[in-house]
Design a protein that fits this description.
The chain has 258 residues and is of the alpha+beta class. It is built from 6 helices and 9 strands. A 5-stranded antiparallel β-sheet has the order 1-2-9-4-7, with no helix packed on it. A 4-stranded antiparallel β-sheet has the order 3-8-5-6, with no helix packed on it. The longest helix has 14 residues.
């Protein structure tokens, strides 16, 4: 049936049936995820006009729009699906202060649970606002890839900044990376190495080229050897910001990726 999305009468009938929330609606997202992105988007756009999409259907639509080369529309659709209170967290990045705890899909923060590190929001002494993100390392060897988020930055020059409170004593730095979805790393913002007694803020600038339509922001540990990747203690980050710099403003150059 999905091959006939050009048949408006058939699509209307299918949408009407699905809007009634039949027991088999749960299979729709799985079926659409394996079909042509243009067909999936056409059908889900019609569905969205009739009834709210389920989280699984919304995720498929976001992926379809991204695959079709329109991450900006994908982000807009995702943002409009959020409750009004969560939409107030919108910024670049979304919820850069980690004030929300529920939006971990779409263009919100994501992180994986892995042995050796526990990641959670924390309300004790944030750098700003009410919360920060805390990573508690148990002393195991980890190849740490932490919180990450999809971005939709238009071409231009940007400043990235982040507050950090590092109590791990690691000899290698943690760093924020901004990378084109299908391309090179644009910037590596190195955070201060070693233990600190208070919050510190680091900044760097970078350029987004015209052919970089979507990006990802990721926090990583830069350790290479097993000894360097054995981490104990607590790392906290907060107040992550991406600000477009007017062309007339000159800022210090960015740190270079390793």
């Amino acid at each position: 049936l999905l091959q006939h999305t050009g048949n408006s009468e058939l699509v209307e009938a299918m949408v009407k049936a699905l809007a009634a929330d039949p027991p088999w609606r749960g299979a729709l997202a799985t079926a659409l995820a394996g079909t042509d992105p243009a067909q999936a988007e056409a059908f889900l756009a019609a569905m969205a006009n009739a009834a709210p999409l389920t989280p699984a259907e919304l995720a498929v639509r976001v992926e379809a729009l991204t695959a079709l080369g329109d991450p900006a529309l994908a982000r807009k659709v995702w943002l409009q699906s959020l409750p009004e209170t969560d939409r107030t967290l919108d910024g670049s990045p979304f919820d850069g202060g980690f004030e929300g705890a529920d939006q971990t899909g779409g263009f919100g923060w994501k992180w994986n649970d892995e042995p050796g590190v526990t990641i959670a929001v924390d309300a004790i002494d944030p750098a700003q606002g009410q919360q920060s993100l805390q990573m508690d390392f148990s002393g195991r060897v980890v190849r740490f890839i932490g919180p990450r988020q999809r971005l939709v930055l238009s071409p231009g020059t940007y400043e990235i900044s982040s507050a950090v409170h590092d109590q791990t004593g690691s000899s290698r730095r943690f760093a924020w990376f901004v990378q084109c979805t299908q391309g090179p790393t644009l910037v590596e913002l190195d955070l201060p190495a070693g233990s600190s007694s208070q919050w510190q803020t680091e900044r760097a600038t970078f350029d987004v080229p015209p052919d970089c339509q979507g990006q990802q922001l990721t926090l990583r540990h830069t350790g290479r050897s097993m000894a360097e990747r054995q981490i104990s203690g607590v790392l906290r980050v907060d107040d992550v910001r991406l600000r477009k710099v007017p062309s007339s403003v000159t800022l210090p150059s960015a740190s270079h990726p390793e």
